[in-house]
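Following up on my earlier message about zinc ion. Here are the inputs again, as you asked, copied directly from the submission form:
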Amino acid sequence: MPSEHPWRTIPTLPSNPSPPAPVCAWPHGHHAALFLSVDVDAETAWTDDDPTRTGHLVSLSFGGYEARVGTGKMLELFRQLGLSATFFIPGWVADTYPAMTEAIARDGHEIGHHGYHHLRPDPGSAFIEDELAQGFAALKRRLGVVPVGYRAPGGEFCEELRAALVRHGIIYSSSFRDDVRPYRHRLADGSPGTIELPVSANFDDWMLGLSARFSPRSIMAPRDVLGMWRDELDEVAEWGAMLTTVLHPQVSGRPMRLRLLREFLAHAMARGDVWLATGQQLAAHFAAATAGD
Ligand SMILES: [Zn+2]
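Thanks, got it. Here's what our run produced:
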């Protein structure tokens, strides 16, 4: 029976038949917004979908690079450029690496929620509430932070999570891949959800610059990525849109990847019309611009 086919219930967002127009003007006459965001997953990136990986020490050591080298190098770069970013940090990382996460907070960067053990929020997962509650508790305990931003670990999301984020007071999510502008989620009952700051899939450094036994893929040369990133930003500015980076210190904190990031950020800053902002700043701007809609 076609009506019982499960694919009949694929959830969709309202479509937009006309070419995308800027949803709101960016502050100070900027033509584009760049949400500079970093996911500090450390070892949880390797253990989230398979607990047996805790015995694979070289695979885990990709994650260990963050506390030893990668995060410090990224913080140094952002200090040199005078930039504030948003760091999404799993609670386990805050508990395990207090010196690293305190250094992030001390530099004035925004701290966002990224689960506790970085467990992927699949539909029906028994861990959704636990991951949220434990993540909040760890960031509060270690850093004194109550995050307003959330990024779904493992790049997945579900309807239960959409409602849970509102219940927990999260203001914005940065997880979806469906727009180049901020928008507001709708819950299944039609009530308003969090603001979404969509991720730009081409700016996930993991997909471009890391290959390992449990995450094998071809990597792209930094010079090719730089051309791709510049082109995307320049076109985003033509559209009046935004882009969102998803950087990991275990990737972008490596020497050639840090050089790439430095050159890309220099290009973005040299344009003079790109608003480099944290998620909290972008969400506040969107909320003010759409108040009363
Ligand atoms: Zn992550």
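One observation from looking it over: The radius of gyration is 19 Å. Hope that helps, and feel free to reply on this thread.
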